[in-house]
Design brief:
This protein is mostly helical and 104 residues long. It has six helices and two strands; from the N terminus they run αβαααβαα.
Length: 104
């Protein structure tokens, strides 16, 4: 992920803006545990589990299906941007908006 960020940052024009969305490492505990179970399930069982979780099936599937899902702390992300030469770094934190369709 860090190398990918560096390559992306290099493409931003001078005085340009780079907006990204990353998973906050501090909120990923529940997903990490559920992913271990999720990957062992059949497609039908995965969809059933997502329905049982409530909210949007798509949101849960999106959160639980990735084999690789890297989380970062706010400090780590700020450091990546700073090291790449960005300034006026802004952090906007909205949690779980894709799972239940609401901001928490």
């Amino acid at each position: 992920p860090e190398e990918g960020f560096k390559k992306l940052a290099e493409r931003v024009k001078k005085e340009g803006v780079l907006h990204i969305m990353v998973y906050n490492i501090e909120t990923q505990g529940i997903y990490s545990e559920l992913r271990k179970t999720f990957k062992k399930l059949s497609q039908e069982a995965r969809i059933k589990l997502c329905k049982e979780m409530g909210g949007e099936v798509h949101g849960w599937y999106d959160a639980l299906n990735p084999e690789y899902n890297h989380g970062f702390s706010v400090e780590e992300m700020k450091a990546l941007f700073t090291d790449a030469g960005f300034h006026d770094i802004r952090v906007i934190m909205e949690r779980n908006i894709n799972i239940n369709g609401i901001k928490q």
